[in-house]
Design goal:
Layout lengths: L3 H6 L7 E4 L3 E5 L9 E5 L11 H21 L4 E5 L10 E6 L16 H11 L2
Antiparallel strand pairs: 1-2, 2-3, 3-5, 4-5
Length: 128
């Protein structure tokens, strides 16, 4: 059975898409730590990020960097943090999280509950 992320890529589950190319897909996390929290995933379903071929992993990081630049332009923050946890969904993914302080990247803290309008506004500011 396809992962939830593959189903998002295939359009079976709606998302707030930020960017897409032939190999990668980025969308807003629906349980964000901060406004602008974005997930970057490979379109090829791979469970563990370090099982991704070297060239594809390098391209994924460059794709993530382009999105991080957009996030930093759109969302007031000191930096955009990056995290790879990979236990909650069996599909490799990178979290890009706008940060003011290190604690903003603490996945144990309560997630934001954003409205549809807030998600759409953030999407509009970051998407390309």
């Amino acid at each position: 059975m396809a992962s939830i992320f593959t189903r998002i890529i295939n359009g079976e589950i709606p998302c707030y898409k930020i960017a897409e190319n032939e190999k990668f897909f980025a969308f807003l996390d629906i349980n964000p730590l901060m406004k602008g929290h974005t997930l970057v995933i490979p379109k090829k379903e791979t469970d563990y990020i370090f099982d991704i071929e070297d060239n594809d992993l390098a391209e994924m990081m460059v794709f993530a960097k382009q999105i991080a630049v957009r996030i930093k332009e759109a969302i007031p923050c000191t930096k955009v943090g990056i995290a790879v946890i990979g236990l909650e969904v069996p599909h490799a993914h990178i979290h890009l999280v706008p940060m003011q302080k290190e604690g903003d990247l603490d996945f144990k803290r309560a997630k934001l509950q954003l409205t549809e309008e807030e998600f759409l506004d953030i999407q509009k500011k970051i998407a390309f």
